Amino acid sequence: MTNHPHQPHLTRRRLVGTATGAAALAWVGRPLATTAQDATPAAPLVASPIPLDPGNVAIDLPIEPVTLDPALTYDANSWSVIHSLYDSLVEYDTNGTLRPLLAESWDVSDPLALTFRLRPDVTFHDGSPLTAADVVATVAHTQDPETASQAASNFAVVTATEAVDDLTVGLTLASPAPYLLAQIAAYLAIVPASALSAGIDLSAAPVGTGPYRFGGWDRGQELRLVANPDYASGAVKGWPLAETATFRFVNDPSTRVADLLSEGAGIIRDVTVDDVGTVEGSDTASIVVAPVSGLLFVRIATDTAPFDDPRVRRALNLAVDVDGIVATLVGGSGQRLATLLDLTSLGDDPSLSPYAYDPDRAIALLAEAGLGGGFETTLEVTTSDSQVIAQAIAGQLAAVGITITVSVVEKAEFDATYAEPTAAPLRMVTWTPMFDPYSLLGLVVASDGFLSRYANPAADALIATGATATDPADRADAYHQLGALLHDDPPAIFLYNLTARYGVANTVTGWQPRPDEYVLPVRR
Question: Residue 173 sits in which domain range?
């Protein structure tokens, strides 16, 4: 690929500017706009000011999407492909600021309504115009029980969606939902109504409005994209990096590094601590480190013994040396969390202290719970998450008498069995983004959450308050209370906030990491 002198280069050992100091947390607790006038102004629709680089940019991801249906996509690897093909109504930019994308503006002045005005002259890849009917159809598709979307409950508050006119769409809400814009950004990539009504297989023939068009998919190997020459929203999302882009699915971290250093890949995800020196010692690539709006935790199923006893769950938290894991296995990039609200979450309470590493106290609590002789259980982890970290957790739990079998499963199976009562009681979860905590809390912690195996009526009440309070201060207060409650009645082993580590070829210019951890083949 050709370098453009006026574009910023990614330099060795560079810590992305947004990753340092207060700028790293620029999106923390930011209240969403309450009226169309309060929203960040829509960027104009203009053609790319930068000529496309000829050729191809290849991106190595650890796992492959199961589908290209946005309603059935739930992780940053899959979202990297989805948001290259499709656009949402709104978008979090690289600074964590919520901005209009397909929407020109939005209005939430009525707490029981959310109205979007769409940009004119936006077209899908098949040449058809974007209209309000496409938004109505996409919402209906996500909510349809036959779609079986895990994100459907995020939109349960939407009781009606109406095309007011070709460019205006109105959502009627059952209750105030200040979290809804954050859900729309991640989960509601717009699909043409014509494709949904015709029953088109979105994996075989996806049609979006995004910076790239679908070029082909060799399952198990790679997915190819072609730059959209008509893309006009690059001022928000970014402009295509090259004429074509290839997502390759490479589970082994060392193979990803080899691809990067042999110039077979331009960007790779999840460089391990052990491989950082190899990349930094090369003349062809750099390491880029950036904060992520997300966290790592071990979800504990409280609907099965002995985890129905909070003493056992507290013991698990006391038995894991999170600071040691961060220092030795994550390169020091992470901070131990006190609850399921990370450093970028609305309502994070810095006065709430994380569990100390205290294996002796853990052993005592287990004895109080009648488990002085220890017990056996299973910890499930996906092929894309760090099995080294899972094994370290298992080893530390073994030291207090809990024998752990680490079970490694494919991501699709992992996602499909969250709430299954026969599934492993412990599962290591990476959750992004956390711009608004409702998605995690409503899905995983609330007793009626689609992915939940935890029940606490007091927690349910605070989650409901945090979901419906229209004053950001009231939401933050509810989440402060919830954090303290979850600390004492833990639904998880609280681990640490996430930091992303990428390998980027020196020939790739203008690419920037994002706090939602999508790897999009675009430049700014």
Answer: 14-256+506-523
44 preceded by a cis bond (ω within 30 of 0) = no
User: Alpha-carbon distance 154 to 439, whole Å?
Assistant: 7
Q: Which residues 6+ apart lie within 8 Å of 399 measured at CB?
A: 319, 359
C-alpha span between 334 and 356 (Å, rounded): 16
CB proximity list for 293: less than 8 A, separation 6 or greater? 27, 96, 342, 344, 345, 432, 433, 434, 435, 515, 516, 517
Number of domains in the chain: 2
Q: Are residues 492 and 510 in the same domain?
A: no
Supply the CATH number for residue 205's domain: 3.40.190.10
Q: What is the number of other CB atoms lying within 10 angstroms of the CB of residue 215?
A: 13
3-state secondary structure 159-212: EEEEEEECCEEEEEECCCCCCHHHHHHHHCECCCHHHHHCCCCCCCCCCCCCCE
- How high is the pLDDT of residue 32? 38
Among residues 351, 294, 198, 242, the alpha carbon closest in space to that of 499 is found at 294
Residue type, 434: M
Of 29-38, 91-100, 276-285, 359-368, the poorest mean pLDDT is in 29-38
Q: What value, to the nearest 5°, has the Cα angle with vertex 336 and ends 439 and 317?
A: 85
Which CATH number fits the domain that encloses residue 486? Answer: 3.10.105.10
User: Do 344 and 489 fall within a single domain?
Assistant: yes
Q: What is the pLDDT, as a whole number, of residue 45? A: 56
Q: What is this structure's pTM?
A: 0.86
Both 449 and 512 in one domain: the answer is: no
Residue 22 burial (CB count, 10 A): 7
199-219: average pLDDT: 93
314 and 237 within one domain: no
Do 217 and 83 fall into the same domain? yes
Asked whether residue 277 is domain-assigned, the answer is no
Task: Give the C-alpha separation, 134 to 87, whole Å.
Answer: 12
Contact 238, 135 (CB under 8 A): no
